[in-house]
Structures are given as structure tokens and as C-alpha cells.
């Protein structure tokens, strides 16, 4: 990074103050909003608002956490805030924490504190877009300068969309052509900050603990191994970059989704999500490695390619109204998914009877993270592969439980994996049996996350219902008693899903995407009638197995 520059601006009044509003971007390195807030200011108010929209305890949720965030992500955020506070203290400042609806809190602070500049990182999420408009309108009317730079992404999504005539590019390759090589300068590294100003009678909080927010730690045997914060992000980045050969030869499709002791990826996604790690700094570091090796992989499979996938989804999400919905989303296929909440709960609670799928869902619950190919497996299984449940329902569960849950990327991946947009080869289905076995024939991943199956012989670990009763008895796991039977027959269910997807695609093609609610209802009725004409046993069996 560049050496620190002088932050004093002789043209700025000596008594002026700046408010730095942290949301994402929970870092000191490469933070242009923080740099600008500090430059020429006599005082800086670094503020984070505990937002009940995301953080308020929901005692009725299916797992510990709030309505919108599981406890793993809340813990990760609090750790990130504590680390940010520590970093700010080293610069002569500290983090101010308030609680409430963010726009109301910000407006109250702007009204009470001596602030001439409001600085915050630009955010493309619809929730923050609405908040930001409200706060910016107030600040402008009050004569307060607003500085909101794009630094959560490498490119400005609005620039890419403008280059494409006002429309987002809908393929990765078209995005790359439009984007070209990024042009940015990393923000200067701060060596000090102006002190915090007088906060008056505002009751400033310390970074709260989970207990102080009302959360009770459950007594599970395993928690996420990933600690939040900029310090941990930079440590993990250094660790990843130290193996230059691994960085140079990284190919996304060749990762091992069953590797859990040492995952076959950087695990930097949660740090990028919260902005503990600058994507621009990460990009520059990767480019520096590439300059010093003889050969390296290229997008879309390289590590730089993974960052550019992130940019692609951010751009499409920003430029597509109702990107997180099926019905009002112009780029989404209209498909009459079923409303079987019993199947959804079996999937969420790791009770599908398919050990590979269930182990992944246990890892999601315990760690708040799993390998991207594991995510592909369970998303395909829930939607177009086996259960034909709406992708929005799976999206909601991922959105709540993942520590790296990101509005643009999570929705983009569910659209992709359900073959609702971007990817349309619905005949290609991840097998809930053979896909995991290819990477982990002994089933060590399953044995770790589903200890009830730890003594099952490897011949049966992916299909324990096929084991003779004597084998099940010896393994101390009777299928149907200690571990559930499969909720569906994969061969039958996947064939039915292919047929349904084909008919739904034909409907979308025939109506040029203008599919009405009534059109979907008719096709749904046809699907139900087709199922009724088939042997009734699978349906009765499915209902019995889910109970």
C-alpha cells in the first residue's frame, strides 16, 4: 500500500467534524470513506448502528438468532466490530455504537453533533439504498457534505450498466468484456485519526456481547471455526497468498467439498461480505502473485475469476428490479414449484435420509459455512434435482444461516442452481449419492457431521437404507429409527423434476416469458394430476417418511 499522507486540510475549518457511518466496510485498510472523513477534520465520529431489523432476537426462529440472521453471523459481526474498535483505538479513535433504526439514529446524530461531512461506503443492497436516500436527503438539506464512494466492489455496477446501454450484462463473459481491467487506487493507510468529538447526551454503547443483545449460547458441540474481523481477514489472506503455487493453480471446479479439516478454498467470503477485507486489495494482491509465477489459471476458474463472479452478480442484482423474486423478475423463469413445507423442513433440519445432503446442512447449521460445491449439491437437491421446492425458500434459509450471506450473490446463486436464470441445463443434476462419494469414498465428512452414521461401513455410508439389517444393527444405526429413510427416491424424483422443468421451460418459451399466475396454477394442477396417475406408493411413502 501507499505510505500515509497528511490528513490535515488547511482549507477545512479547524472546528469541523465528520461522521463516518460503518455498515459493511468494517476495516481500516483501503477504506476511502474513512480516509476522507479523517482528512482535514478536527474530529471524527466513527459510528455503527445496531439495527433491530437484522439483530433483534427472534425467540420463535427455528434456530438461535434473529429473524434474518443466525447466531453464527451475528457473532461474526460482533467480533468484526470489536476488532474494528481495537484498530481505531490504535489510531487514537474508537468505535461509537448506538442502537435503533439506522436512518433515524443517523439523522439524530447529524442534528446533535457538530458534523460537516457524512461519509459511508456505497451499498447496492435495496435495504441500504432506501436508508441511504433518506439520510442523504436530510444531510443535503442541512448543508452537510455527503461522501459515499464505491469500495465494497472492484467496479461500480452503475458504470457497467451504463456501458451496456442501461441494462445489466446477463452473462459472465459479457460482463468481463464490458468491465475490462479495473482502474483504482487503494486508499491511503492511516497512521492516526482525529479524536472523537463531543457526543453530548447520546448514550454511546460499547460493542455488545451476544448475551447483552439477549442471545443465549446454545450448548452444541461445535461452532463456526471462523473468527470475524479485519485482523483475521488479513491473516487468512497472508496465509493463502504464502502458497503461491496454490494461488496460481487454483481452479474452482476442482475443489473438494468434503474437505473440512482444511477446506479447499480461502474462506475469505465472510470477510468480503462484511468488508473486513477489501476486494480491491485482495484483487491487487492476487495480481502481484500472478506477476511472479510462470503460469496461472484464468477467469472464470481462477481466484481472480471468483472475485469477478462476485462483481458480476453485484452488477446484475443492482440492475435487475425484484432480483430476489420469481414473479416480478424479468430474468427469472416462471416455474410452478411445489409448496411442500414438510420437504423443506426435512431439508433444513438435515432429515432427508441422504447422508451427503444432511451432513452439508448440519455443517451449515453449526458453522454457517460450507464449500461452494456443497452448496450446489443441496440447492439442486431442494429445487430442480429432487424435491422441486421453490428456490426462494432455500434462499431464505441460506440467507439467514450463512455467515457470508450476501444479498446479490445468494440470490444469484439460487437463480443459477435452480435453473431459473443464467444456467439452463436442467438435465444436469447433482447426485445426492455419487457426487460426494467421488471426493470422499470413505465418508469421513459424513461421519464427522452425522456421528450417528460414524460406524456405518463405507459401502453403505452414502446409501445406508441399502445396508442389511445386520449391518445397521452392528453400526448402531437402524434406518427409519436412528436415521431417517430417504424422503424421495432420487432416481424417480429426479426424472419427475426433469419432466416438470421441461414443461415449465416450454410454457415460458411459448408465452415469451409473460407467464401469468393462472398459467402457473394450470401447470401446477397438471403436475399434480400426473403424480396422481402414477403409482400412489411413492407419495404415501414420502409422507410417512417425513413424519
From TrEMBL:
Residues 16-154 form the Photolyase/cryptochrome alpha/beta domain. InterPro entries: Crypto/Photolyase_FAD-like_sf (IPR036134), Crypto/Photolyase_N_sf (IPR036155), Cryptochr/Photolyase_FAD-bd (IPR005101), Cryptochrome/DNA_photolyase_1 (IPR002081), DNA_photolyase_N (IPR006050), Rossmann-like_a/b/a_fold (IPR014729). Pfam families: DNA_photolyase, FAD_binding_7. The keyword Transmembrane does not apply. FAD binds at residues 265-269, 306-313, 404-406. Binds 1 FAD per subunit. Keywords: FAD, Flavoprotein, Nucleotide-binding. One of its GO terms (molecular function) is DNA binding. This is (6-4)DNA photolyase.
Amino acid at each position: 500500500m501507499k505510505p500515509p499522507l497528511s490528513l490535515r486540510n488547511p482549507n477545512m475549518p479547524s472546528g469541523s467534524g465528520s461522521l463516518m457511518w460503518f455498515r459493511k466496510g468494517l476495516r481500516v485498510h483501503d477504506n476511502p470513506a474513512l480516509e476522507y472523513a479523517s482528512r482535514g477534520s478536527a474530529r471524527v465520529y466513527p459510528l455503527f448502528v445496531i439495527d433491530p431489523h437484522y439483530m433483534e432476537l427472534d425467540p420463535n426462529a427455528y434456530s438461535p438468532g434473529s429473524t434474518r440472521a443466525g447466531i453464527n453471523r451475528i457473532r461474526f459481526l460482533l467480533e468484526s466490530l470489536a476488532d474494528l474498535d481495537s484498530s481505531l483505538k490504535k489510531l487514537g479513535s474508537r468505535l461509537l455504537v448506538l442502537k435503533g433504526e439506522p436512518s433515524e439514529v443517523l439523522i439524530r446524530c447529524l442534528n446533535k453533533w457538530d458534523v460537516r461531512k457524512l461519509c459511508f461506503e456505497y451499498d447496492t443492497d435495496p435495504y441500504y439504498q432506501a436508508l441511504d436516500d433518506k439520510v442523504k436527503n436530510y444531510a443535503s438539506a442541512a448543508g452537510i457534505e455527503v461522501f459515499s464512494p464505491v469500495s465494497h466492489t472492484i467496479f461500480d455496477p452503475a458504470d457497467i450498466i451504463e456501458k451496456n446501454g442501461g441494462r445489466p450484462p446477463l452473462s459472465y463473459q459479457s460482463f468481463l468484456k464490458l468491465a475490462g481491467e479495473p482502474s483504482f487506487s487503494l486508499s491511503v493507510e492511516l497512521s492516526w485519526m482525529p479524536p472523537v468529538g463531543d457526543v453530548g447526551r447520546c448514550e454511546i454503547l460499547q460493542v455488545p456481547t451476544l448475551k447483552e443483545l439477549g442471545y443465549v449460547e446454545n450448548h452444541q458441540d461445535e461452532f463456526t471455526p471462523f473468527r470475524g474481523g479485519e485482523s483475521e481477514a488479513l491473516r487468512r489472506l497472508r496465509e493463502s497468498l504464502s502458497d503461491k503455487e496454490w494461488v496460481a493453480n487454483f481452479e474452482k471446479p476442482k475443489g473438494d467439498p468434503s474437505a473440512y479439516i482444511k477446506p479447499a478454498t480461502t474462506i475469505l467470503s465472510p470477510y468480503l461480505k462484511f468488508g473486513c477485507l477489501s476486494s480491491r486489495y485482495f484483487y491487487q494482491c492476487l495480481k502481484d502473485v500472478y506477476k511472479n509465477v510462470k503460469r496461472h489459471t484464468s477467469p472464470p476458474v481462477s481466484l481472480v475469476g471468483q472475485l469477478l463472479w462476485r462483481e458480476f452478480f453485484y452488477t446484475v442484482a443492482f440492475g435487475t428490479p425484484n432480483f430476489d423474486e420469481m414473479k416480478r423478475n424479468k430474468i427469472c423463469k416462471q416455474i410452478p414449484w411445489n409448496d411442500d413445507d414438510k420437504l423443506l423442513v426435512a431439508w433444513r433440519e438435515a432429515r432427508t435420509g441422504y447422508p451427503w445432503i444432511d451432513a452439508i446442512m448440519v455443517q451449515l447449521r453449526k458453522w454457517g459455512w460450507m464449500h461452494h460445491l456443497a452448496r450446489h449439491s443441496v440447492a439442486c437437491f431442494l429445487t430442480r434435482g429432487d424435491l422441486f421446492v421453490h428456490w426462494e425458500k432455500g434462499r431464505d434459509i441460506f440467507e439467514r444461516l450463512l455467515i457470508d450471506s450476501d444479498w446479490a450473490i445468494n440470490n444469484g446463486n439460487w437463480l443459477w442452481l435452480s435453473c431459473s436464470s443464467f444456467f439452463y441445463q436442467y438435465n444436469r443434476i447433482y447426485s445426492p449419492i455419487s457426487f460426494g462419494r467421488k471426493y470422499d469414498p470413505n465418508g469421513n465428512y459424513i461421519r464427522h457431521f452425522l456421528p450417528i452414521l460414524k460406524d456405518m461401513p463405507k459401502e453403505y455410508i452414502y446409501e445406508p437404507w441399502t445396508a442389511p439389517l445386520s449391518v445397521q444393527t452392528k453400526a448402531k444405526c437402524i434406518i427409519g429409527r436412528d436415521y431417517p429413510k430417504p424422503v424421495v427416491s432420487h432416481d424417480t424424483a429426479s426424472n419427475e423434476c426433469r419432466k416438470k422443468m421441461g414443461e415449465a421451460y416450454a410454457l415460458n418459451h411459448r408465452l415469451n416469458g409473460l407467464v401469468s399466475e393462472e398459467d402457473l396454477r394450470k401447470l401446477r394442477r397438471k403436475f399434480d394430476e400426473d403424480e396422481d396417475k402414477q403409482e400412489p406408493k411413492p407419495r404415501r411413502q414420502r409422507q410417512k417418511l417425513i413424519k
